[in-house]
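Now for a typical sample entry:
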Amino acid sequence: MINIAICDDDLITLHNTKELIEEYKIKEFNIKTYSSGEELLKSRNEFDIIFLDIDMGGINGIETAKRIRVYDKRVKIIYVTNYTDYTPMAFSVHAFGYLVKPLKLEDVHHQLNEALSYMKEDKEELVEFITNEGLVRINLNKIYYFEYQSRKVLMKTNDKIYTLKEKISDISSRMKIHGFEMPHKSFVVNLYNVKSIKGYDIFMMDESVIPLSQKKSTEFRNTLNIYLSNHIEKNIRG
């Protein structure tokens, strides 16, 4: 059973979205509806897919998604919006796709097709590191950053910090293909877990703040923009 949440403070859109999803006959869904971000967050239910309105009173869709991402990195969040220019929103939270109001049956079903396809293919992509504790295999998305500190390289993950037996420059070269970049000579960050950039500070999903060197600022920002644009295009093209 696929668990789906719909969150929209416009009750007409809320019910319309539910009806469009129920017209999808390929898969059986368990659908729950919420009329505010507060109500969705209070439920603490875990979903496979969330259709989330951006422009809600109270906690809007962007902030709601940020809070959901604290405890659920895998749920497919599909934003529902009145606007077609949504690229800047990707800085705030990793969205799977976007739908523009008024919703159309074919668009909703396309997003469901895409989400279900990715769910079938979702497998942990593991990378290996030699640490002081021996060989470890880590899911890429669980790595936030690497830091060179006191002649050691530390790997910060979602639940632990490892000490690695590698040079920070070698890690940068090896991890670049996986979407990691070096914003500072002492750090290599996972672009997947970047929340925002303000000035010369990079804010990560775990609330860590990584320095962005002035020398690398333009290159890093451009690389992040390309990464985010590619992520969005891949997920909404069709």
Observations:
- DSSP finds six helices and 15 strands in the chain.
- The chain has a mean pLDDT of 88.
